Amino acid sequence: MQGKRILVIDDDPHVLRMVKLILSKQGAQIHTAASGMEALTQFYACRPDLVVLDVMMPDIDGWDVCDRLRQVSDVPVLMLSALGGDNDVVHGLKCGADDYVSKPFTDDVLIARVEALLRRAALSPPSEKHQAYRDDYLTIELDKRRVLVRGKPVKLTAKEYQLLTCLLRNAGRVLSAEQILEKIWGWEYRNHAEYLYVYVSNLRKKLEADPKQPKYLLNESGVGYWFEMQATA
Question: What domains, with CATH codes, occur in the chain?
Answer without folding.
Answer: 5-122 (3.40.50.2300), 132-227 (1.10.10.10)
